[in-house]
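User: Predict the structure for this protein chain, please.
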Amino acid sequence: MTDSRASVLGNIRQALKRGAPTAEQRQQAANRIAAGKTNLLPARGQLEPKAQVTLFQKMAEEAAATVARVNDPAAIPAAIADYLARENLPARLRLSTEADITGLPWSTRPLLEISKGATDGSDEVSVTGSYAGIAETGTLMLASGAERPTTLNFLPETHIVVLSADRVVGALEQAWARLRGEFGAGNMPRTVNFITGPSRSADIEQTLQMGAHGPRRLHIILVDGEAAGGS
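Assistant: Here is the predicted structure, written as structure tokens:
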């Protein structure tokens, strides 16, 4: 444990009038974390897989995201090009460097200008994968990493996210369980972001403003065929 972390936890224990945890308490906490007990799940999160995907799309669209569905990852560049043309957006994309994104057949759309890696905020459109989709709320779960820089999720005005249908789960708890199971203890991502629709705020005079704290557009490419845009 770092000195700064120990100091913070020490101050919390002092305020709560508690001493340092005993070995038994530490073991109890470790056992509780390892057990990963799931709380009650809402009924709409307990659907069969196809219904979960349908619910995810419905909830995402209700949160002002747009969704396009394709049957093959090879169709993703065309779907993105069509979206950019329809929205009158520049044909310049900043990609995450995860293999599921960079390995797509971008050459089939030669008019798209492609660059890769983290953004400094000058890129207008980003394309990333998504670790999971949560059906009950239409929420995307994005795990950070060297190939998945978080800047791509928040700095561009338009965020395009590729999500495989087989990575849609019913409820938030199931997404966390999947993340813990696939990454494992000691290997968890540094940051996990949850995104439900484009950024918005009505703090000023109760007038809705899109893009207040992040992208003003969120477009999801939902791949019904084989996996794409996962971890």
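The mean pLDDT is 89.
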